[in-house]
Model the fold of this input.
Amino acid sequence: MTTNQATAAQWLDAIAAKASVPVATVQSVLDRHGIEPQATLPRRRRVTVRSVTLKGEKMGTDQDGPFDRTWKFGTGLWAVLSDRNSRGKSSLLNVIQSSIRGEFPGRIKPDVWRWLSHVEAEFDVDAVAYRIIVEKPSGDDALETVRGTFSRRSGGDDWLDLYQGPAGQHLALAVEDALMTELAFTKFHAFNESGQSTTHSWPAISSALFVSGPGNAIFGEIRVDAMPLRLLQLFMGLPWISTYSAASTALKRVQANQRERRGKPDKATPRLRERLDAVERALNGARRRYRPAVDRARLRLDLVTRDAELVTLRNAVDEVRGQAGALEQQLTGARTILADTRRALQQLRDDRAAGVVFRQLKPVCCPSCETGIDSTKYQAAEAAEVCAVCGTRHTEADPEEAIRLVDLEADVEDAAASVARLETEVATTTRAMRAAEAKLADALKAIHGIEAEMASEGEAELELEIRGLEAQAEQLHGLIAETEGQTASDAAPDDEKILIATVAVTKSLYDGLAREILSEASQEITRLSRLFGVENVESMEWGTGGALSIVQGGTPTSFTKLNLGERLRVRIAAALAIIAVSRKRQFGRHPGLLVLDSPAAQEMTGVDFAALLASVQQAIDQTDDIQIIVGAVARPELRDVVLGGHQYHAEGDSFLF
Amino acid sequence: MTAANTRGTHGVPAGATQAGFHHRDAVRLLFILALGSEEPDPVGEGTGANRIFRGEKRAMAIDFLVRYPDYLADELLTRYEAEGEPALLALVEQIFDADEPDVRTVKMVRWRRGAFQNIEQPLSILRSYGLVRPLKQIAGQRRHDFEILPPAHEFMERAIREQPALVWYRDRVDLVMTLAGFRSGSSLKDDQYLHPEYRDAPHGTEIPQIKDRVLARLKRLKGSL
Done:
């Protein structure tokens, strides 16, 4: 069985074989404990910070006063620079971190936090735009006054609010839920010996995207629970990780219960009963919180399909609107022509009629000078068939005029027909336009419905939790029954045996691959650390236990034993190494965002800093759509690397905001 | 469309455009002068017995209302608002039902002193056929008056009998006379200036129609019945 290409079916077969039980039994045990095979990976998603806006009023400084600034970012390398220290760079980067985590004030310094009245950040996860807005009175830092809004763009300038309310835990949860779903990360469970389980979620994962100092862990913030390693694995995107995690957690739970049972028999039953009560209480609590599961994967797929349809529908509306507009214009023109033609016809008719009656009269005087006309002149003229006034030979009434009249009548008919035809076309097109608009409105409504559904509290975790608790309860029932002398139900399969097999099989699936990747990561971190100026590093090895074994100057050491400067460099090296290795391996799942604050803080020489930047640039060149934001004191080396339009520079003494 | 393209925009014979519809204009002017005329002064101009139409300005003002059915309709609605006579509303509806603003409008050009149309051509036709005589100005008078000669009355009756299409002109002038009566030309002109479209029309351009506005006003007034 190849490590990374095993299917769920092959996995089940392997477990069944190892535990010597039928596949169906394996399936039912795994179902009860909420263990699902994760053989394939969702594709990589990219997080990109798009803009940050800070508004507020500075107080208690030399330069008090209101501020209102927006910084825009895109993919690639971006630099936030100042010529002096303490000019707001870190604050801006801290705001970015707070926004990505939905945690305010987070790392924002208390004085800066007090100044702020409005924080707004927009970031994309691939093509989906999210926006977080936090508002509070400037000059105030009481948490009760802080309000947060977290929204997702639903088209054009419309935003769907996923959360609106106090900017505390609930805001963070809303952000967590959205981003964990978008990035398709599952929470880690860690289950330690005393039976407590902790869940690590977005805060832990996103912390790995920010490097702002020497830190306590090479990757992220948490050193325990082998977090750095697990984060590494998460970003590497090894398949089967979460399955392994769920299986080993379930196994530990089951084994803890077994140990209880194997303890002193007379004490076992009460203790088991105690535990059973605790489990059943937890189960009831969980069941009360449970609502029908939201099938996120299906909803997300649905959303993607409908989003695509939306584009088509919008285009259709635009097209038919354009047609309707053009036809309306034509109709107006045609109506004008009709009116003009009818008017011309009327005038011609009237003038003809008037002419006929006038011409029956005989002029009595010259129109110009009022000289009378002699009646004898008329008699002579009639005889000669000429006009008495001007002598022109009489002609028949101009036949041309009659033809003109007929033609004009025909023109009126044509114009009227044109108008009628256009009126029909306009009506038809208007109907089509209304239909297209209605379709678009329906599609938008459907999308909003799905978004609302997805925004509701995720039930996936709860479901697994319930299943896990149910399994525990059942097992405890069985154990109690045994110790009380009742025949153990022969229906209860040996969960422990199957879970052991599951853990072993799952582990072997990714073990080889994980080892390879760890080795690559170790090499890359070593190379980069040396490049950035960590002295005398002979080797850095990332063990499967999660610790980084370092040999420096011939002496074995560890991350925490490095000095501050070295730790910072190693952290940056680790961040870049992850990106590099996950790019090489097709299933890298790093969100493509890295924020480095003051990477040169710990007395990095110009040479080392240039090397660091070159590595950063290389990471960008080799990986698509990645965004690295560096906050630093302006140095000449930066100028060579950062594009002109991709930097914000507070020059001289000035502040970033 | 048949020969429209060779004949200018509206199928009007090119020759007619340049020469105008003088006979039609003459008929219209005749009805205005005749129906708006009054008994002569016992003492004064004219040959004693013939009716006189007083004031070219007045003639122009009446002509304006004959030529712009929509402005006429607006005046009728104003009178309706003042007097409440339903027959007035009915008249306005008839004007719109017959599409008169589209079919019967003969535009006038707005000059410095308002709508003005040189009446020399139609007047010379009326004069040469012995139907109307412009009166010479008496010293001290700035007004142009016109004498209606006896053949005019018989001519008008015959015209209507033989060319029923021309009835419209008589009926329309009658209607306008009910509004204009014997008010002075200046007073009638002042009313015209109340319309912003008229007042604000740039000099030398045709006075625009106000059909849509009047239609809306009609609907409003009908609706409030």
